[in-house]
Design brief:
Blueprint lengths: L13 H13 L5 E6 L5 H13 L13 H7 L6 E4 L8 H11 L9 E5 L7 H12 L5 E8 L6 H5 L2 E4 L5 H10 L8 H7 L4 H8 L3 H13 L4 H12 L5 H19 L11 H30 L4 H13 L8
Parallel strand pairs: 1-4, 1-5, 2-3, 3-4
Helix pairs in contact: 4-5, 7-8, 10-11, 10-14, 11-14, 12-13, 13-14
C-alpha cells in the first residue's frame, strides 16, 4: 500500500467517503470507527488516507494537503501519532492489544489526536477482543481507533456496538479495471478478465495479476466444468489449501465465476462470451436452480473458513460437489 495515498485516490467507495467527510466536518469524531466490507475493496487504504487527513496541518477539500511537515512525516512512515496493529501470524494477539493500550495512555506527541488503525480486527481471539473492549468502553482522550474487518467474518457484537460502522462495498467491473490500469505503466491486455474474476475487489485483482492464483483459478474452474474425477478435485483442493490466508480471496474469485454461470443459466447471456464452451455447457446443465446452489455452496465454504475449519477439507467437499453438478447442499 502506498504511504502517499490520499482520500481522493480512493475509488468506488463514495458512500464511505461521504460518511467520513460528514464526521470530520462536524468536529465531533466518534472514538472508534469500524470499516466493514468485502476483502480487498480499500478499507485499509481508506483508513490510512483518512488518518493522514486528520493529522494534516493544512487540510483542504476534505483531504490532506500533502505539503505540510505532518504529511511529509506520514508519507515517510515517521509520524509519531499514527500506529497500526495487524496480525503477525494468523491472529492479533492480546500482547499486541496491551502494547497498544500502553501507548494510548500517553497524549499525542504532535497535535491533539493520535490515530490507531487495527487491521483485520476479526482475527482477534477472545482475550484480545475483550481487552480491546475495555479501551472502547473508556477510550483515552485524544485517540481515535479505526478497525477494519471483513463483512462475512465474526466479530464481537459488543465491539461493533461501540464503533461507528462505515460500510464498504464491492466495486463494479469498470471501477476495478480502472484501478488495475492506474497501477500499470501501459494497457494490461487481461485487465477485463481480471476485473470480472475479482468480484469487485481490487485487492483480489492484484493477487490474481501477480501470483499463481490466476492459473489455479483457471485450473479449478476448468476441472469443474469438465467434471473431472475425484482424484483431480482432491489434488486441486490441496493446492488451494496452500494459499492459506489468500484462500478466502480465491473463493471470492470462484464465486464471481459461478455468478457468470448463473447469469448464463438464467438466459442473461451478455457475459456468455467470457465463458468457454465447457463452462456454457455446465451452465446449461445446472440451470438457474443448480447455479444458485453452486453460489450458496461457495458462500457456505467461505463461512466455514471464517470458523477456522480445515482448509483442504472445505475445498475438497466444495469442488467435489460442484464437479458433480453444482448441487452444493451440505457444503
Amino acid at each position: 500500500m502506498k504511504a502517499s495515498l490520499f482520500l481522493r485516490d480512493i475509488r468506488g467507495q463514495e458512500r464511505a467517503l461521504a460518511l467520513l467527510a460528514k464526521n470530520a466536518a462536524s468536529g465531533r469524531l466518534p472514538h472508534a470507527f469500524l470499516f466493514r466490507g468485502p476483502r480487498g475493496v480499500g478499507k485499509r487504504s481508506t483508513a490510512m488516507a483518512f488518518a493522514r487527513f486528520l493529522l494534516c496541518r493544512e487540510p483542504a477539500d476534505n483531504d490532506a494537503c500533502g505539503r505540510c511537515p505532518a504529511c511529509h512525516r506520514f508519507a515517510a512512515a515517521t509520524h509519531p501519532d499514527i500506529q497500526t496493529v495487524a496480525p503477525r501470524t494468523a491472529a492479533i494477539k492480546i500482547e499486541q492489544i496491551r502494547e497498544m493500550q500502553r501507548s494510548l495512555a500517553f497524549p499525542p506527541l504532535e497535535g491533539s489526536l493520535r490515530v490507531t488503525v487495527i487491521i483485520r480486527a476479526q482475527t482477534m481471539a477472545a482475550p484480545a477482543a475483550n481487552a480491546l473492549l475495555k479501551t472502547l468502553e473508556e477510550p483515552p482522550e485524544g485517540n481515535l481507533l479505526i478497525l477494519t474487518a471483513e463483512e462475512n467474518e465474526p466479530i464481537l457484537p459488543t465491539i461493533v456496538s461501540r464503533c461507528q460502522v462505515v460500510p464498504f462495498a464491492s466495486l463494479d467491473d469498470r471501477a476495478v479495471r480502472e484501478i488495475i490500469q492506474a497501477g500499470a505503466e501501459e494497457e494490461e491486455p487481461g485487465s477485463a478478465s481480471l476485473a470480472r474474476l475479482a468480484a469487485g475487489s481490487p485487492g483480489l485483482a492484484a493477487k490474481l495479476g501477480n501470483s499463481r492464483m490466476t492459473g489455479l483459478l483457471e485450473e479449478v474452474t476448468g476441472a469443474i466444468a469438465r467434471q473431472e474425477g475425484t482424484g483431480r478435485m482432491i489434488a486441486l483442493a490441496g493446492e488451494c489449501a496452500k494459499l492459506k490466508d489468500d484462500l478466502p480471496l480465491f473463493l471470492q474469485g470462484l464465486y464471481a465465476w459461478a455468478a457468470d454461470l448463473a447469469w448464463h443459466a438464467c438466459g442473461l447471456g451478455e457475459r456468455a462470451a467470457l465463458l468457454s464452451e465447457a463452462e456454457q455447457a455446465l451452465a446449461a446443465r445446472l440451470g438457474a436452480k443448480g447455479a444458485a446452489d453452486a453460489l450458496a455452496g461457495i458462500g457456505r465454504a467461505r463461512s466455514l473458513l471464517a470458523r477456522n475449519c480445515n482448509r483442504q477439507a472445505v475445498c475438497e467437499l466444495l469442488f467435489l460437489r460442484l464437479a458433480a453438478g453444482g448441487r452444493a447442499q451440505g457444503c
